Amino acid sequence: MNLLVLGGNGWVGGAIAAKALTRGAKVTCLARGVSGEFPNGVEVIIGDRQNPESLHCFQERYYDAVVDISSNPSHVIAAAKFLEPRAGRYVYVSSVSVYRDASTMGTDESSERLSPLPPGSELSLVNYGEAKVSCEDAVLKVFGEERTFIIRPGVIGGVGDTTDRTGYWPLRFHRPSSPSELVLVPKSTIDFVQVIDIVDLANWIVLAIEREVVGIYNATHDPIDIGTYLRTVAEAVDFRGDFVGVSNGFLQERGVSPWSGPKSLPLWIGQKDSVGATTRSSEMAKKAGLTLRPISETAKDQLLWELSRDPSVPRRAGLSDVEELELINDYLNLALGGENEV
User: Fold this and answer.
1) CB neighbours (10 Å) of residue 85?
2) Which tens digit of pLDDT belongs to each residue from 189-223?
């Protein structure tokens, strides 16, 4: 198989390129070369997709498939148009963020999408879902349904997740902030988690490309309530302490951010009308060959990787030790009365 990856030195693109190499594919990567290392064995072409002429080096080439992860509609539109006569299929890694309905549990690929991003709009975190819709539409318009493979992942976790959303928990359970080995967790009955391991996602995408799969597929792990998820991760990394379970209201009142970012509890949302965002159905993908590793395996692998990272690098999500201790002490004082410290 002759594969072109637009990117290839970032997390997802790199994992796909690396997996394709192990399957004997010839892999070419086009990227600026600033997001990380390319997998050993790929052909590297340095180019900036802000300049459409960066694609002209492929004028005399042909690929069995093109893999694109970009969220920028202008990049995807230019690539699809230029590569249509030079590639058999277009593989676009989109996102479950394209869906309009975030409140209904178990929705599948037929769920209504957001409106496309208006032409000329600047890409941002706020309009990420709309931008992905525009990218999907561009690929389908140029390559048609019979030559398009669209993957809509949910939260991706595992080795290499520098967003810190999924790495926070195995590392926190391994290294509690309190000497009493207490860990602050959300005591939420309305939150679910769907973290797909990057290994599972990359493996399936490459195998599906080999099998010439086309169509649109959600790619998520099976949904699990956040309490069970956290207990599974804690057990996997041999946590011997205790949970300090606090309510959604407690966290919200004290300015703890949901989902990600500074002073956050990653993967916690705390909003009933968002339950659909983390309970998408991936039954179609499983029928097309997607297999899922146990959550415990992902947690173990991720902890080893987290421990290998430079501890001086600021984390992008989660509570600092000081923030967590303050919240635990605050909760214990409320629950037990008087002054209690851990």
Assistant:
1) 7
2) 999 999 999 999 999 999 999 999 999 999 999 99
Domains in the chain: ranges and CATH:
2-153 (3.40.50.720), 160-193+224-276+295-336 (no CATH)
Query: How many Å apart are CA 5 and CA 237, to the nearest integer?
Result: 35
Residue linked to tokens 């410290």: 341
CA distances from 241 to 181, 268, 300, 321 (A): 5, 21, 17, 16
Could you read off the pLDDT of 163-179 as tens digits, one per residue? 999 999 999 999 999 99
Residue 240, class by beta-carbon neighbours within 10 Å (0-12 exposed, 13-18 middle, 19+ buried)? exposed
94/216 Cα distance (integer angstroms): 10
Q: What is the largest CA-CA distance in the chain?
A: 76
